[in-house]
Every structure is written in structure tokens, then in C-alpha cells.
């Protein structure tokens, strides 16, 4: 497993090799080729595509170490907004529904749907309530949002949290992949869906 | 779900050097996959022992799928053991039991083919259940991702309008008394509830095939319990033994309790394109296929 430090050393070396090294640079803070501009509203395009380097009104975290610091010292509320499979209506009674366990940053709350470009009112309300409960209603409490690398869901959800009035919103841009690559442990967590079940209706 | 996988595919494509393309550790780690299989074994076949299927059941699947929503699967049964049913399990899918074929008296249980959706890098298992109640297992590792959320097609409405149309095609010459292979094609979007409509940006409500029954001259060839893992517009290849010219009947039921059936003369007018009639009993309309 590559540590972040080693990745940085490699990336710095590759920088010298010129533009052909884009694949490695895409994984490191050092080189950001192909970053997307920030959209004015929420992103409604393909969820898996190049993301921005910035989040207006919030802060971007690139390193897992920074996140650990925020969790330990800042009492950050950490929110995973990855998609979750939902048992479809009409599945035969007794048909096995056994999603692969979702491994996440320990202590995260998982709110699928909170990062959609357009959210139904029920999900918007649910996300707002869950954040309020988790922060104890303190708008200054740090809130960290993540999903996966090159995934817009976390960018959208972080922007949404800012719109709710949270003043210390962090976007952990490269998500759980970065966390794992840095060698930190994960834990299996369960999704919290908005009432009336579905994050999508 | 499966979001990262697509992205990783992109990373692979973009990265000619390829050095940094990174796969979700969970999926590519044989230990994690073995652990997943242990859990599925306990959930699906509690207390049953699984024997090595070598020489009895063989599974064909591409090591790396071109299209995760259309992964071709072949299951071959040697005939060394009399087999009553076959399970297909896609470990990484949220509804892992993708298909369970139960053979009837008219079956020629040697070969099955179908196409499935695969959500992430996964082991796929085929389990053959013998008449004397043993389970024989074989598996393959398949690299495919994002199949569950891949759209069913460009036009959901058109797909629903066409639903239930069928074609049946008998492979090769028809010889009474000899095993024959048939290819069944059913028009059905098999929406699994995880596909986003590309225009409305909302998820398409699930509607998928739950069972297919194939019979010949009134006796069963197979009964299939299927699930959301089956591809859009299923194509199933199966063997049967026609003692003489006759009628094959196909009955498809979906998760909205709609029933579609097709009746085919075998051999038909030019056996490669038999006549068919399909109707959707849910709305009473009838249409020639």
C-alpha cells in the first residue's frame, strides 16, 4: 500500500517526466489535470467524471491525515454520500437481498441520495435533519462530506450543507479510496434512507 | 452503487501508463471475495456442503466484460451426474442469486446460456444440484463494473411498449428424438430500480422478470426463477428433446404480475423463424411478435 508521502514523492518525480504522466497525477494533489470548473448550482451531469479542485464556501481536503485531525480535534461530523443499492419493489418474497457490506471511514454516517444534483424534498429534509442532529445544531461544527474519487455526489452534498448554513464544511475530495490508500482502517456501515424509503423519488 | 467502478474504468482508459489505476481494494482482494462467498454460502445454502464441480459443471464467463450490463454466461453440464437444477450466483451483486433453472422432463440439461448485469469485480458461481441431492460448485472471477446502474436503453417508454414480445430460434436442423438447442429472446427492459433515466434524472421504477417457464407439448423444459441481475431483453439458450414436431410454450411473469406468453411451432415455417404470439395479460392487449 502506497503511503501518501510515497505517492507524493512519486508524483513529484513524474512531474519532471512531463505530461505523459497524467494517470498518476490524477491521483495526487500535486498535479490536477482535467479538473472541472465549479458549476454555479448543483452538478446534474454524470456522477463519475472529473470534479473541481474547489468548493465555494467550503474547504477541500485532499489528505486523509487532515481528515483524521479534524475528526480527533475538531469533532467533525463525517458524512458518506455514496450510492446504496435499494431492494427493489417486486423482488420475490424470500429472494435473497445481500448487498456487499459497505466499508467506510469509521464513524461516518451514510446518507445515500444527499448528493444528487436534484433531490426530492423528502431527501433534502432528511439530510438537513440528520446534519442538525449530528452537529447538535451547531452550524460552526465541522462537517466533512465524502464518497469516492472522481465522484460528484460528495461535492453536491457539501455544497448543500453550505446552503443549510454550515460554516465549516469540508469536502474530502478523493473519498474512501484515498482513505484506504493512506492505510487507515474502514468499518462496515449501514445506509440511512429518507423516510418513505427512497432517496430517489 | 458501482459509481467508482465506472470511474476506475475511465482511469484505466485515460491512463496509458496505467500505473495508478486503482481498484477498490475490497473487490480485487481474493481474501475479501472468499469471505463474501462464505457469507453467501451460509445464506443461500445453510448447512449444505458444496462439492468440487470439476467434470460435472463448467462455467464460461469473460475474464473482463466488454459491457457490464450484458455479460455472457455459459453453463455446461457434462451429464456425469443427473442434474435437477442449476443456480447462478453473482457474488458482488446486491441480489446475488441471479438465476435458478429447474429442469423438467423435456429438458436436455447440458447447456445453458444467458446474459447478466454485473455490478462490480466479482466471483461468479454456478452450482449444479444433482438428482441425488448433492451440490457441485464451480466459479469464475469476472472484471466488470457498473452493470446494475447501466441504463436499459435510450427510451424507457418504448421499452415498456415492446415488453413481452418473444422470438424463438431452434439451432441447427430439427431431428425428432434428438436433443436440440433453442434460443429464446424476450423483450423486457428488466428495470432493476438502480437505473437513472438519462433525461428526467430520476430512477426508473423497478420492473423485472421473475419467472420464465418453457414447456414442450405440455411438459416442462425448465422453470427459471430470475431476478434483477438478468440483462435487459433476456436471451436464453437451452436444450430440449423434441420427440416429434410440436408446440413450445413460453410463459414469462414479471414483478408487476404481468404475464406474457408465446407459442411456437417446432419446427416452424423455416425453423429459424417460427411464428409467435405474445400477449400481455396485464392489459389484455394482444400483438403478433
Integer average pLDDT of chain B: 83
Order of helices and strands of chain B: HHHEEEEEEEEHEEEEEEEEE
Q: Strand-and-helix sequence of chain A, N→C?
A: HHEHEEEHEHEHE
Strand content of chain B: 35-45%
Main sheet: strands, sense, barrel of chain B: 11 strands, mixed
In total, how many domains does the architecture of chain B comprise? 1
CATH architecture of the largest domain in chain A: 3-Layer(aba) Sandwich
Distance between the termini of chain A: 40 Å
Indicate the radius of gyration of chain B in whole angstroms: 20 Å
Using the alpha-carbon principal axes, give the shape of chain A: globular
Index terms:
heterodimer, A: 201 residues, alpha/beta, Oxidized Rhodanese, domain 1, 2 domains, 5-stranded parallel β-sheet, two-stranded antiparallel ribbon, 6 helices, 7 strands, 31% helix, disordered C terminus, B: 289 residues, mainly beta, Immunoglobulin-like, 11-stranded mixed β-sheet, 3-stranded antiparallel β-sheet, 4 helices, 17 strands, 13% helix
Task: Describe the protein's architecture and organization.
The complex is a heterodimer of chains A (201) and B (289). Chain A is α/β, with parallel strands linked by helices. Chain A folds into 2 domains: 1-33; 36-84 and 100-189, Oxidized Rhodanese, domain 1 (3-Layer(aba) Sandwich). Chain A is 31% helix and 11% strand. In chain A, helix 5 (152-163) links the parallel strand 5 (143-146) and strand 6. The longest helix of chain A has 15 residues, at 121-135. The radius of gyration of chain A is 17 Å and the shape is globular. Chain B is mainly β. Chain B is 13% helix and 39% strand. In chain B, the strands form 3 sheets. In chain B, strands 1-8-7-4-5-12-11-14-15-16-17 form an 11-stranded mixed beta sheet, with helices on one face. In chain B, strand 16 (277-280) and strand 17 form a beta hairpin. In chain B, 46% of the residues are buried.
Amino acid at each position: 500500500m502506497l503511503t501518501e508521502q510515497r505517492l507524493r514523492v512519486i508524483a513529484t518525480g513524474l512531474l519532471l517526466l512531463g505530461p505523459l504522466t497524467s494517470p498518476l497525477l490524477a491521483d495526487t494533489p500535486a498535479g490536477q489535470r482535467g479538473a472541472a470548473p465549479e458549476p454555479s448550482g448543483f452538478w446534474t451531469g454524470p456522477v463519475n467524471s472529473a470534479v473541481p479542485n474547489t468548493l465555494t464556501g467550503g474547504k477541500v481536503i485532499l489528505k486523509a491525515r487532515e481528515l483524521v485531525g479534524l475528526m480527533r480535534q475538531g469533532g467533525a461530523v463525517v458524512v458518506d454520500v455514496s450510492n446504496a443499492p435499494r431492494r427493489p419493489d417486486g423482488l420475490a418474497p424470500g429472494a435473497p437481498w445481500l448487498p456487499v457490506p459497505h466499508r467506510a471511514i469509521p464513524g461516518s454516517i451514510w446518507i445515500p441520495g444527499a448528493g444528487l444534483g436534484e433531490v426530492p424534498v423528502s431527501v433534502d429534509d432528511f439530510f438537513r435533519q440528520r446534519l442538525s442532529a449530528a452537529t447538535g445544531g451547531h452550524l460552526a461544527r465541522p462537517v466533512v462530506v465524502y464518497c469516492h474519487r472522481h465522484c460528484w455526489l460528495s461535492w453536491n452534498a457539501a455544497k448543500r450543507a453550505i446552503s443549510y448554513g454550515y460554516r465549516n464544511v469540508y469536502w474530502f475530495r478523493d473519498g474512501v479510496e484515498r482513505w484506504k490508500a493512506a492505510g487507515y482502517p474502514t468499518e462496515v456501515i449501514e445506509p440511512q434512507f429518507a423516510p418513505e424509503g427512497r432517496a430517489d423519488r | 452503487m458501482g459509481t467508482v467502478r465506472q470511474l476506475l474504468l475511465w482511469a484505466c482508459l485515460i491512463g496509458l501508463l496505467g500505473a495508478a489505476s486503482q481498484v477498490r481494494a475490497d473487490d480485487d482482494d481474493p481474501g475479501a471475495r472468499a469471505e463474501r462467498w462464505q457469507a453467501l454460502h451460509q445464506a443461500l445454502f445453510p448447512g449444505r456442503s458444496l462439492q468440487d464441480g470439476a467434470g460435472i459443471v463448467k462455467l464460461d464467463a469473460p475474464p473482463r466484460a466488454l459491457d457490464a450490463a450484458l455479460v455472457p454466461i455459459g453453463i455446461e453440464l457434462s451429464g456425469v451426474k443427473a442434474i435437477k437444477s442449476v443456480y447462478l450466483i453473482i457474488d458482488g451483486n446486491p441480489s446475488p442469486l441471479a438465476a435458478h433453472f429447474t429442469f423438467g422432463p423435456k429438458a436436455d440439461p447440458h447447456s445453458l446460456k444467458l446474459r447478466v448485469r454485473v455490478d462490480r469485480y466479482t466471483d461468479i458461481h454456478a452450482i449444479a444440484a444433482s438428482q441425488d441431492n448433492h451440490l457441485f460448485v464451480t466459479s469464475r472471477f469476472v472484471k466488470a463494473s457498473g452493470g446494475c446502474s447501466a441504463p436499459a436503453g435510450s427510451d424507457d417508454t418504448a421499452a415498456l411498449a415492446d415488453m413481452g414480445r418473444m422470438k424463438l430460434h431452434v439451432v441447427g436442423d430439427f431431428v425428432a428424438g434428438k436433443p436440440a438447442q433453442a434460443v429464446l429472446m424476450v423483450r423486457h427492459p428488466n428495470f432493476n430500480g438502480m437505473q437513472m433515466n438519462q433525461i428526467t434524472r430520476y430512477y426508473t421504477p423497478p420492473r423485472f422478470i421473475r419467472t420464465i417457464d418453457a414447456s414442450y407439448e405440455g411438459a416442462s423444459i425448465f422453470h427459471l426463477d430470475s431476478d434483477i441481475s438478468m440483462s435487459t431483453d433476456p436471451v436464453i439458450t437451452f436444450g430440449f428433446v423434441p420427440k416429434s414436431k410440436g408446440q413450445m410454450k413460453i410463459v414469462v411473469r414479471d414483478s408487476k404480475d404481468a404475464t406474457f406468453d408465446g407459442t411456437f411451432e417446432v419446427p416452424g415455417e423455416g425453423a429459424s423463424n417460427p411464428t409467435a404470439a405474445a400477449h400481455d395479460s396485464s392489459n389484455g392487449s394482444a400483438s403478433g411478435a
